[in-house]
Amino acid sequence: MKAQFRMTDSAVELLDALAGDDPEMQRLMEEEQANLRVARLVYDAREAAGLTQKELAQRVGTTQSVIARLEDADYRGHSLTMLQRIAKALDLQLSVQFVPARRPVRRRKAALAT
Q1: Cα 43 from chain centroid?
Q2: pLDDT, tens digit, for every residue of 8-49?
Q3: How far apart are CA 62 and CA 11, in angstroms?
C-alpha cells in the first residue's frame, strides 16, 4: 500500500511524515535539524556583525575555512569551545539549554526499576 501525504510547505512536517514512527530515523533527523540550527546561528551572528568569514576567523584566531565549515549545515563537528570563541569575538553571550524532546524518550524497564 502506497503512503499518502497531504500537501505542505513545511519541510519539517514533510520530514516528520517521512520518518514516521522509526526511532532511528527520528533521531537522525533531530541531529540534522540541530546541526542546521547551529550553522544558521553562526551565520546570522556573523552577518549581523557585518563581518566576512575571513574577518570573523581573524577575530577568533582560526581560518576562513573553519568558519565556512561551521556555517555548513552538513558539518557535525561543532564544539562548545569554538562556539564560545565566536560569541566572544562577536561580543555575544553563548546560551546552551536543554529543552523537552518533541517525542518522549522511551526508557528501558530495567532503568525504571532502579
Answers
A1: 12
A2: 567 667 776 777 778 888 788 888 888 999 999 999 999 999
A3: 34
| DSSP-derived 3-state class of residue 101 | coil
Q: Which residue has the cell 510547505?
A: 9
DSSP string, 63-92: -HHHHHHHT-TT-----HHHHHHHHHHTT-
Helix axes 11-19, 23-48, angle to 10 degrees: 160
Q: CB-based contacts of 74: which residues, under 8 Å, 6+ apart?
A: 35
- The x, y and z cell numbers of residue 46, run together, are 556573523
> For 70-90, what is each residue's pLDDT tens digit?
999 999 999 999 999 999 999
Grid cell in block for residue 48: 549581523
Q: Give the C-alpha separation, 32 to 9, whole Å.
A: 19
Tell me if 31 sits within 8 A of 41, measured CB to CB.
no
Q: In the chain, what are the domains?
A: 11-94 (1.10.260.40)
